[in-house]
Amino acid sequence: MTSAIPPGEFEIIARYFSRASRRSDVLLGIGDDAALLQVPSDRRLVAAMDTLVEGVHFPVGTGARSIGHRALAVNLSDLAAMGAEPAWALLSLSLPESNAEWLAEFSKGLHDLAQRYNVALVGGDTVRGPLVITVQVLGFIEAGPALTRGGARPGDLIYVSGIPGEAAAGLAVIQGQTVEGEDSELLRHRFNWPEPRVQLGQTLRTLASAAMDVSDGLLGDLGKLCQASACSAQLELERLPASPSMRALFDVAASERFALLGGDDYELLFTVAAGRVPEFEALVQNTEPGCTRIGRITQRDPGQAVVQCLRDGRAVVVPATGYDHFSKA
Q1: 256 Ramachandran zone, left/alpha/beta (phi>0; psi -120 to 50)
Q2: 228 and 149 in contact (C-beta within 8 Å)?
Q3: Whole-prediction pTM value?
Q4: Any idea which fold 11-142 has?
Q5: Residue 283 — pLDDT band, cuts 50, 70, 90?
Q6: Whole-number pLDDT of residue 2
Q7: Omega before 40 within 30 of 0, i.e. cis
Q8: CA 220 to CA 209: how far, in whole Å?
Q9: What's the topology of domain 149-316?
Q10: What is the pLDDT of residue 318?
């Protein structure tokens, strides 16, 4: 009995990634030298791209379906932070070997999420090498002012969606740092299956003054938002949303570190002008995910940290600021 011949490059593309698109704006998709796409005349094009590397962005041995989901989700999260409607995606896939079972699972994870958000895969590339996945997503926003990191102003209130830190706690579970059980499974799921907040982002586009997604840690990403907006922030630690699963498996200090410094949540961090808070809170009340007010934007003070952490009104020092690929620490 002979084993099946592994699929070659062009068979991989045809078998696992060529899908008929439901989108009328895809004039020519996978199969030619490039895609032809129709951009609506009354909208602006938004583009985002992220790369996932095995052993850096996900542990060795992570399930292929989860990797496919994550590769698209992290890009959809970037579009969500701009309030954009996703439309098209391109995939660059580096594989150490051609494995039909792995490819079937990976493509299912990617295509299932793409179908949920009506995203058409319109091109890309496949090569042999270490496991590295790059996805670019393109989408639209209405003509007019865009939702960016740079619009926060002193007096704005700071909000975050969901529960920051659960994904980092999930990675700790995967790495065997705690016991297994129902709570560990929930946290593991939060790491392996991040949920892009696309609908929330579209709601925020005309309500929020600034926004970004939380990918490298809440504290560090809030610092980036403040830098872009030329302002500072006060982060009230007692307001951080609590995770029953984190508290069940980790002590209070570890849970707070996960919430402040842990990456991979892909929640939305955003600011709302004080005068628009009642309108915003009425709109998102009882919706998923929940949104929590965690602080306030302040004037830039050269003598203070860009983000000042407060506990019951008193300043406290949190030493680290989030993930950096090229940090020497």
Answers
A1: alpha
A2: yes
A3: 0.91
A4: 60s Ribosomal Protein L30; Chain: A; (3.30.1330)
A5: confident
A6: 40
A7: no
A8: 19
A9: Phosphoribosyl-aminoimidazole Synthetase; Chain A, domain 2 (3.90.650)
A10: 84
Measured at the alpha carbon of residue 122, what is the angle toward residues 73 and 15, in degrees to the nearest 5? 90
Residue with token string 């949104």: 291
The answer to whether 267 touches 216, Cβ cutoff 8 Å, is no
pLDDT in tens, 75-122: 999 999 999 999 999 999 999 998 999 999 999 999 999 999 999 999
d(C-alpha 59, C-alpha 171), whole Å: 9
Question: How far, in Å, CA of 105 to CA of 95, rounded?
Answer: 14
Q: Start-end ranges of CATH 3.30.1330.10 in the chain?
A: 11-142
Start and end residues for every CATH 3.90.650.10 domain found in the chain: 149-316
CB 263 within 8 A of CB 168: yes
Dihedral class, residue 217 (left if φ above 0, else alpha if ψ from -120 to 50, else beta): left
pLDDT(13) > 80? no
| Average pLDDT value over all residues in the chain | 91
pLDDT on residue 197: 97
